[in-house]
Amino acid sequence: MSPELDAAMLAADELLLVPDHLMLRDGPATGHAVLVAGGLFRDVGPAGVLAARHPHLTPLALPGKLLMPGMIDAHHHLTQSFGKSLAYGEPSEIFRRVWVPLESSLDDEFVYLASKLAALESLRGGFTTVCDAGTRAPGDIGAIAAAVQEAGLRCVLGLICNDGGNDSSAGERREILARAGHFLGRWPREGLVHPSLAVSVPEAASDEMLAGVSSLCAEARAIFQTHVNEHLASVERSVVQRGCRPLELLARLDALGPQVLIAHGTLVTPSELMQLRDTDTAVSYNPVASQWKGNAVAPANLMATMGIRFGLGTDATRSDAFRLMDAAEAAQKLAFGLAVGDASSGGGWTWFDHATHEGARAVGLDHLTGEIAAGKHADFLIVDVDTPEMCTSVDLTWDLVRLGNRDQISAVFVAGRLRLWEGWPPDWDARALQRRLAEIAHAAMDRAPILRLHPTAAEHRRLCRARAEGGLGLGPQ
Predict the structure, then answer these.
(1) Which residues form the Amidohydrolase-related domain (predicted)?
(2) Does the pLDDT value for residue 472 go beyond 80?
């Protein structure tokens, strides 16, 4: 009988792991093993072959377990996650009423604490990489970088380069572009932090800034992030201010390309889909954001068929990769599949792929992560599939999409190092972090000039009852 798995067994410098199931790029395999050493997958193949090839190592059996790639969150806001409950029931474009006022009130300590808590949430949810779209908090963005590195989360970290539009001065533009160029060289390429540049929405930057930031990212092989065609209000604002839709503006400036990751892309025309495909621009498909506050659902299944690169993003809603895959499939089924009788709506594997290796491709890290393959960084999960829900599985991939649960994650590794064991970090005090942030979070929210339009659940219930008792019989309008 194999000894019961514990964190100490997974702390060795070299590990020859033999799970019951190994999730490879083309699907699950049995009877396979992986060698993890020096932060990388060094060897992958049949268990017997690897045992013979590496006789100095004792194979570590993982009965009832699946070893799979860590998942990629292609769109996050790490400094907003702690205030996620502020967004419940709110109409679109909450960044103007909630996120900008909230982030502008945060100091460096709060940015660090909030980012580390968000990193912990991501790891607990099965994400080993997040793509952060930038913070509006004052101070040094290094506080975010320190937080994710200490938590052990891989991060594409965006620096916001807004200059306010075409009325900005030439001096302002030069200063921002100089800071952006310095930022792109600030961290080593093989580390956990991967610098990126961002513009909140295209109409928040001048033509020169949009073209310049995109060009800098292309030269540095970094990612340029911007929120594009997310809400009706944003599309109309761009048309009024710049004479074209946000995606059309980027295309007009030759600012699209393989270095660009647009967030959301829910409101896209047929010609805009062609522009995305022809320029190899990537998209983050954020289905939970559509459920919570969106005007529409991005046509992700169509994007997949067209060959448009995309990953799945949380948009700082909830950091649960399994629920994100489920939402990705369900949103496509409800928004597009039902009307045309498409019972498959991606077939499960589409959403798993775009949560892993296709997600890594969208955020520009497919050379490093996203799959179990020799030479890639060892970012992976050990998942318990010996559960009542999965014990009779005939399609493990689709079961992970529809039935998978973050409580099944036994271990999370990033760069070959154990970062979480049974939901908690083995080498730092996460509960102390929670207590400290809980002490100061509500004060920060209270002092920020936030405008919420929807009451809390308790107040909403009271209002509904009052209306009903008053004979109106109406819910909130």
Answers:
(1) 67-418
(2) no
* Whole-number Å distance between alpha carbons of 411 and 36: 14
- What's the CA dihedral at 452, 227, 144, 85 to 10 degrees? 30
- Dist CA 45 CA 355 (whole Å): 23
Q: Report the alpha-carbon distance of residue 453 to residue 451 in Å, rounded.
A: 7
Burial class (CB in 10 A: 0-12, 13-18, 19+), 339: exposed
Distances (CA, A) of 267 to 23, 40, 233, 301: 34, 40, 11, 14
pTM score, two decimals? 0.95
CA distance 194 to 429: 26
Give CB contacts under 8 A, 24+ apart, made by 468-477: none
Decide: 338 and 100 in contact? Cβ < 8 Å. no
**What are the DSSP calls for 399-437, one per residue?**
HHHHT--GGGEEEEEETTEEEEETTB-SSS-HHHHHHHH
pLDDT tens-digit readout, 123-163: 999 999 999 999 988 878 999 999 999 999 999 999 999 99
Give the chain's end-to-end CA distance (angstroms, integer).
Answer: 63
Residue-wise pLDDT tens digits, 428-457:
999 999 999 988 888 888 887 878 888 889
Domains of the chain: 7-69+372-421 (2.30.40.10), 71-362 (3.20.20.140)
d(CA 273, CA 282): 11
d(CA 123, CA 362): 20
